[in-house]
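Researcher: Here's the sequence for the chain we discussed earlier.
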Amino acid sequence: MIKIIISAAILFICTGSSIAAELKIGLIPEQNVFKQFKRYEPLGTYIEKKTGHKIKYTTLSRYGNIIESFHKKKMDGAFWGSFTGAMAIEKLGIHPIARPVNFDGTSTYHGYILVHKDSGIKDLKDMKGRTVAFVEQATTAGYIFPIAYFREQGIKNIDTYFKEYYFTGSHDSAIHAVLNKKVDIACAKNTMYEVLSREDPRIKDELVIIARSPDVPSNGLGLRKELAYGVKAEIRQALVDMHLNPEGREVLKNFGVKRFIETNVEDYAPVFDIAERAGIDLKKYEYVNK
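Model: Thanks. This is the structure I predict for it:
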């Protein structure tokens, strides 16, 4: 049998149903890329089983690459971080469709600015001349929130205020950097902080939270605007109904969440606000990670 893969953009008929398609979905490096793929693969298999649409993941080495690579790799969507999701809405017209709910009932996360308890750092003035680990310049918790926080505290130029700063590429790496005293300060998301603290009690015992960001939407699935409405609707329904059947609940458990809920552009309002406070225009934001 010859399998023909037809572009998902034209797989829509007037009834609202769709023909099976192969969708290329991007994954940001929230953690080690191998762990990331292992986490998402069963979810893709579940979606394929429920909808007939095959999910093909492409893992990206850098957060910002998900915007740059969207057209180049002909991607149909991605599990966007809150900031990359906001950029994708502004630059690509992406349609957010669903995001996970954590076991504690939240469907959001927030950023932390962390220091080691032995660092002697109690507040921002103690950070002057110290070293900082950011994650990427396209992450809310790992860069945008800290920049907004520093800016509002009068720190306009991080190049002169800090001795050195660099980008780890993932939240877990940033947390481990400050835990192991390779840097004085780290910026990362609370969900990764919680995951790692369950594996290593030293994280909560030895790290101190200096600042916390507002809540922003959890990493959610957003699909390109040209994708057929029927395809989007079927994938959204498969995700939001997962918790209603035993197989879906098992996949959710392994994924590390309670369920999925619908999401939309309005949910990204806190991200747009943090970006504005950081002095960032999302439509024009360009950067090169160091």
